[in-house]
Design a protein that fits this description.
Chain A is mostly helical. Chain A has helices at 2-35, 37-41, 44-54, 59-83, 90-128, 131-137, 142-181, 185-195, 198-226, 231-260. The radius of gyration of chain A is 22 Å and the shape is globular. Classes of the chains: A mainly alpha (264), B alpha/beta (156).
């Protein structure tokens, strides 16, 4: 009895210490990545390659899912608003939902599963095949050569992807609402423009997606760098990246939203 | 500097992203309408502002001429003090009246300005003296019921 209590307490304590240790390691890791940014900024080509990898190659999935999310919002929004006789507010509904929440959050989730997992797998395999150690042996800093460009590639790509997602979603809402159902086109756009604020809505959405970009890319890099150098370790690390990123995105979204949209 | 195909595709991606941001800012947002710091401030005291909110439009003849800047409670007059920022492009006479109106049955509330006949114009910091409060549905229903009740009492 005492023995099992003792061991379970020990287990909890170990988990807590492990978590705190990991948090500290992430902080130190983030510092290294940021500190080496200057060196990687001098070799723009590396960052461009990473933007291509995590941004351009994610374009298709972002465009297609943005369009479909917009189509669904248009349909569902119309069905609900019609009951209150205010179908003209469809434009406002679609635009606010996308710009404030769905755009940054869904595109960050897609980014985490498409680019984040790939980043973890790449760094994990570089780590387990000792390519990173080999670089250090050749006096090439892996942080400046590999990790920092990936970080900046992700951070630059994320807000752009979220903007494309929102724009495609609004286009999808327009397609369903105006072209197919026949909501008045003028009311759709003018109500949207009257109710969407540049600073409060659009700019805050951009800030959100920037924060998500930093979080997802750092998590992906850290999980890859921290992975045990085995095939199993890499596979666990990739899973952890997607799960942790999703949780962190949603938690951060709540925190940011409560800061940004207070009252009024 | 040698150009690669990666550069081209990154260019396509960044252009698409910036175009999307511009579309959001110009087509979806209200970047083109009265901006936040441009214009002159006037205020008015209302007995009841109903559901008026900061940043609600100020309209005259249906045209947006400004926005509600802030709403505060004046504990000397026991009235709501509404500060409005009007666009510099529009001048209004000093005896302009302001009323709180609703667009549509369930629509948002806005301030409607009706120009008076004074020759002097409103300036920064002026007060709009003639104000009309928001229509509160409960009061109208109350008055209606009261009226009905007194009618019924008279008939008997």
């Amino acid at each position: 009895m005492i023995g099992s209590l003792d061991s379970s307490l020990r287990h909890i304590g170990h988990k807590v210490v492990d978590g705190v240790w990991k948090l500290g390691a992430i902080a130190r890791f983030s510092w290294y990545v940021l500190a080496r940014s200057g060196e990687s900024a001098r070799r723009v080509q590396l960052t461009l390659n990473e933007i291509y990898f995590s941004g351009t190659l994610s374009l298709i999935i972002i465009i297609v899912s943005g369009l479909f999310v917009g189509l669904v919002l248009g349909l569902q929004g119309y069905e609900t608003l019609k009951r209150y006789g205010s179908a003209e507010a469809l434009g406002t509904l679609v635009a606010l939902a996308l710009v404030r929440e769905l755009g940054p959050v869904v595109s960050a989730l897609l980014f985490a599963s498409r680019a984040g997992s790939a980043i973890t797998a790449k760094i994990g395999i570089m780590k387990s095949t000792e390519q990173l150690s080999a670089m250090e042996m050749m006096a090439v800093d892996p942080f400046a050569r590999v990790l920092s460009p990936i970080f900046w590639g992700g951070v630059i790509s994320m807000p752009l992807l979220a903007a494309i997602f929102s724009a495609m979603g609004i286009f999808g809402g327009y397609l369903i609402g105006v072209v197919i159902i026949g909501v008045d086109s003028g009311a759709f756009w003018s109500q949207m423009q009257a109710n969407v604020d540049l600073r409060d809505d659009i700019w805050n959405g951009v800030i959100k997606s920037f924060v998500f970009g930093v979080a997802v890319t750092l998590i992906a890099l850290f999980e890859g760098y921290d992975t045990p150098p085995t095939a199993e370790g890499v596979s666990y690390a990739v899973t952890r990246t997607v799960v942790t990123s999703a949780l962190v995105i949603l938690a951060l979204d709540f925190v940011l939203t409560s800061f940004m949209f207070t009252g009024v | 500097m040698k150009r690669t195909t990666v550069d081209l595709w990154v260019g396509v991606f960044v252009t698409a992203g910036i175009v999307a941001l511009l579309v959001l800012a110009l087509k979806v947002g209200n970047a083109t309408s009265v901006s936040a710091s441009d214009g002159y401030l006037v205020f008015g005291n209302f007995q009841n502002i109903g559901g008026l909110k900061p940043r609600a439009p100020v309209k005259s003849a249906g045209v947006v001429v400004g926005r509600v800047e802030g709403i505060a409670f004046d504990d000397q007059k026991f009235a709501a003090k509404v500060t409005m920022r009007l666009s510099n492009a529009y001048k209004f006479p000093k005896d302009t009246s302001a009323s709180i109106l609703t667009s549509g049955l369930l629509g948002e509330q806005y301030i409607g300005l009706d120009a008076g006949g004074d020759t002097a114009n409103l300036k920064q910091g002026d007060e709009i003296k003639l104000t009309q409060s928001a229509v509160v549905l409960e009061k109208i229903i109350g008055q209606f019921l009261y009226g009905k009740a007194s009618e019924g009492g008279g008939a008997k």
